[in-house]
Design brief:
Blueprint: H1 3-24, H2 32-35, H3 38-54, H4 59-101, H5 103-126, H6 137-146, H7 163-183, H8 190-213, H9 216-249, H10 256-289, H11 296-316, H12 319-323
Helix pairs in contact: 1-3, 1-4, 3-4, 4-10, 4-11, 5-8, 5-9, 7-8, 7-9, 7-10, 8-9, 9-10, 9-11
Length: 324
């Protein structure tokens, strides 16, 4: 293809990219639809530059395309920096602010989760046979094997040989629990309530049973380290699900579809934070909580610090910017 034909066919593409760069550089009002396609336009101009060089087109044309690619690279670098700044802004402002904004649903989720923990913990502690009305005998046996005081590594499932394996196991388990708790909200909130109650019931029953069995010396030091992040994340996942249920039950002046869409924008941001907390919990559970080299006293002190961090984070972080 001759240069004249090349320019005739493709000039509109790099001129459109030049217009987009002007928008990104603040020279023209921005068009969000075009902004969203920046990477696609940039990649295409890079291809056109490569073709122009390969076919030995005029220096003037190659320089024109090369300048567009350089400007595009600068904007791409800025956009990547903006991505990391967005993550920092989310952690230090958006996430804790959303939790405070949805404090009523968070409080309701707390009740649905922690009341079963206390109730079934007491019931199982008073009657060890009660555990079999909640779990299968094989599950109970496996649980006992995981928390034997004589074990070097506590809380490890059968067949797992490394902390890295357990990290993958905990990530999969934690994310699935959080997602089910959140997604259940689409059933008018009933699914979220069910999973909050079920998880609270299971955790409480296991705690009561192992305490009665005398395995509390291994169970509590194990769960202490990651509990602040994991249990709080489950509660927040439940609150996000209840947010969806609330939109379906009481959509206000909107249709249920519109109300659900608006609630989803809030709920999905909560879930971003929940996923981050669950990843932290899985990391602690695999590499810290299971270690037999760390004394129980140290684990409890660190656990208290983690709970303090979580409480202070959600109560105070981001308030200054929120007030502004």
């Amino acid at each position: 293809m001759k240069q004249q034909e090349f320019e005739k066919e493709y000039r509109s593409q790099w001129e459109q990219f030049a217009k987009l760069l002007d928008q990104l550089e603040g020279k023209q009002p921005s068009d969000r639809d075009e902004m969203a396609q920046f990477t696609q336009h940039y990649r295409r101009v890079c291809q056109l530059l490569g073709i122009a060089k390969c076919r030995c087109y005029s220096t003037l044309l190659v320089d024109e395309l090369n300048q567009l690619v350089i400007r595009g690279h600068q904007q791409l670098y800025r956009r990547r920096n903006h991505y990391w700044l967005s993550i920092v802004r989310f952690v230090l402002h958006t996430f804790p602010e959303l939790v405070r904004q949805e404090r009523r649903l968070v409080g309701l989720s707390l009740l649905f989760f922690y009341l079963p923990v206390l109730l079934f913990g007491l019931l199982t502690f008073q009657n060890e046979r009660f555990i079999y009305s909640i779990m299968q005998p094989q599950q109970v046996a496996e649980m006992e094997a995981m928390y034997k005081p004589s074990l070097e590594k506590i809380g490890r499932v059968r067949g797992s040989d490394t902390d890295l394996y357990m990290f993958g196991f905990y990530i999969n388990n934690n994310i699935s629990v959080g997602f089910r708790t959140f997604a259940g909200g689409i059933l008018f909130g009933l699914g979220s309530i069910f999973f909050l109650f079920y998880n609270g019931m299971t955790i409480g029953a296991v705690a009561g049973y192992l305490t009665q069995l005398g395995y509390g010396v291994t169970f509590y030091p194990f769960i202490a380290g990651h509990a602040a992040f994991e249990l709080t994340a489950i509660v927040l996942a439940g609150a996000a699900g209840l947010r969806l249920g609330q939109a379906l039950i009481s959509p206000g002046p909107y249709t249920r579809i519109v109300a659900l869409r608006q609630a989803g924008l809030v709920a999905i941001q909560l879930i971003y934070g929940v996923i981050g907390m669950l990843v932290i919990a899985a990391c602690l559970e695999a590499f810290w909580s299971s270690s037999g080299l760390i004394s129980n006293e140290v684990k409890f002190i660190v656990a208290a610090c983690f709970w303090l961090i979580v409480v202070v984070y959600f109560l105070f972080v981001g308030r200054q910017k929120e007030a502004q």
